[in-house]
Design a protein that fits this description.
The chain has nine helices and twelve strands. It starts with a strand and ends with a helix. It has two domains: 4-54, Spermidine Synthase, Chain: A, domain 2 (Roll); 58-280, Rossmann fold (3-Layer(aba) Sandwich), CATH 3.40.50.150. It is of the alpha/beta class. The protein has helices at residues 58-70, 88-93, 109-118, 138-143, 165-170, 176-185, 203-216, 263-269, 274-280, and strands spanning 4-11, 14-27, 32-37, 43-47, 50-54, 78-83, 101-106, 131-135, 149-155, 186-197, 219-226, 234-241.
């Protein structure tokens, strides 16, 4: 293995790095994509030199993003993923036998293609006949939908104070128009899930999204999860709905099909530490 080092600098005082063999590298119209084969953590994806996932830990993130919102829905039939071109979110959704339609709306064709070429296990769910892949503007696709989905999962880059190229691509996904289109596209009883960022490193962005979503939707609950390969190890998201009280109570997927998630984890994720409560208060 010809090793290289790839630095991910988070603040002037702190950063992380990945070391391994660069096995795929492509710069698309939208972003720079790298896949690195590491010695101990499998393949790792970096986008614009920011760590996105590792083969050995991605399941914590993807299982929270899918199974937390769906644990609040009794009988989900359709799902929309905006972003998520690496396939991990769809891979969790195809475990739901009751889902009849799964749409992946990904801006960047290269992310899907590179992931399929280098991460076959992570992208295996994209071959499921219920899955429709739509390359293009996910926000524009959402705007065309009406009463179409039981769950919407926004698997895009996180909100933070810094304005990077990858953040600018995601900005349409936090606009009032976008959230208005969610209200139009979601079915009665439906739930949306969106990442909010790190309460340790990007508290300003998380606080902004908390107050924005809390003001737009009748029910909004932030959650925290451990993320071993993300900067601070703690990452925040939110589930929201106008007519679902967001109580996790349904187990749709057998426990043996999940590496991390269960209903106890779901309830625990919604319990916030005092400093985060104060920040969001």
């Amino acid at each position: 293995m010809t090793k290289q080092r790839f630095d991910d600098q988070h603040t002037p005082s702190y950063g992380s790095y990945v070391e391994g063999e660069l096995i795929a590298h492509e710069t698309s119209e939208w972003q720079d994509i790298k896949i690195v084969q590491t010695e101990t953590h499998g393949k790792v994806m970096l986008i614009d030199d920011v760590l996105m996932l590792s083969e050995d830990t991605h399941h914590v993130y993807h299982e929270h993003m899918v199974h937390l919102p769906l644990s609040c829905i009794e009988n989900p039939k359709s799902a929309l993923v905006i972003g998520g071109g690496d396939g991990g979110t769809v891979n969790e959704l195809v475990k739901y036998k009751g889902l009849e339609k799964i749409v992946l709306a990904e801006l960047d064709e290269a992310v899907v293609r590179v992931s399929q070429e280098t991460l076959p296990e992570l992208t295996s769910g994209l071959k499921d006949p219920r899955v429709e892949i739509r390359i293009g503007d996910g926000a524009a696709y959402l705007a065309e939908q009406e009463n179409a989905f039981d769950v919407i999962i926004i698997d895009s880059t996180d909100v933070c104070e810094e304005s990077t190229a990858v953040q600018e691509n995601a900005n349409p996904l936090i606009s009032p128009e976008f959230f208005g289109n969610i209200k139009k596209a979601i079915r009665p009883g439906g739930v949306t899930c969106q990442m909010l960022g790190s309460p340790t490193f990007y508290s300003g962005g998380m606080e902004m999204m908390y107050h924005r979503l809390g003001g737009l939707f009748t029910h909004f609950k932030p959650f925290l999860m451990p993320t071993p390969f993300y900067i601070s190890g703690d990452w925040g998201g939110g589930i929201f709905s106008d007519d679902n009280d967001l109580t996790p109570k349904y187990e749709h997927v057998p426990a043996e099909e999940l590496l991390y998630f269960n209903l106890d984890i779901a309830r625990g994720a919604l319990a916030l530490p005092n400093n985060v409560r104060k920040m969001l208060g």
